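Reopening this ticket.

The earlier resolution said the output was attached, but the attachment link was broken on my side. Pasting everything inline this time so it's all in one place.
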Amino acid sequence: MTINTPGKYTFSVTSTDISSSVVKPEINVYPQSGRTALLQATRNFSNNHQINAYNFSTPGTYRVRISTYYYSGSFGGEFAFSQQTMLLLQAEEGTHTYSGKNRCDDYAVNSLLLNTYCTTYLGTGVISANSCAVQNAAKTLIGRCTKGVIRGSTYGNGMVTRNYYDTSLLSEVTFDCDVDNGVQL
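Inline output:
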């Protein structure tokens, strides 16, 4: 993988079930030489998805190893990757209300999200060509969480940054964006 712009990047990985076992994915990041891991074997022991971030301080070529905890090398899942500091937007963004809270999702460029994700996951709200910042300019931004959407044929796959406004609390952002579900900005 080539990093042209230093910054914090998010990795989102899911693995598929093998027989009756749920296999746990792991992520390793190495320099181009392949020696001395920069981010070593980050594992998710409770789910078949893994989200993690690494701050690349210099441009260059890096190696990323994606495998599974029980069957190293037999990954059979999906992988999404995004730079948080410069999250580019698709044509559609979704402003929605969930449990009385104001939220808005910005979708990363090249995300392969299906319309069913937008309509099913958002519940109530508006899909717009404007970014969350434009749609919610009059509201107070409380926090952000970058998440991976990797549901295969159900929702597609890609990266989403959820923005929390006005009626949300920082504790709710932290709860929604725990170590298994996203990276808080």
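Reporter confirms the inline version is readable. The CA atoms of residues 111 and 158 lie 4 Å apart. The mean pLDDT is 75.
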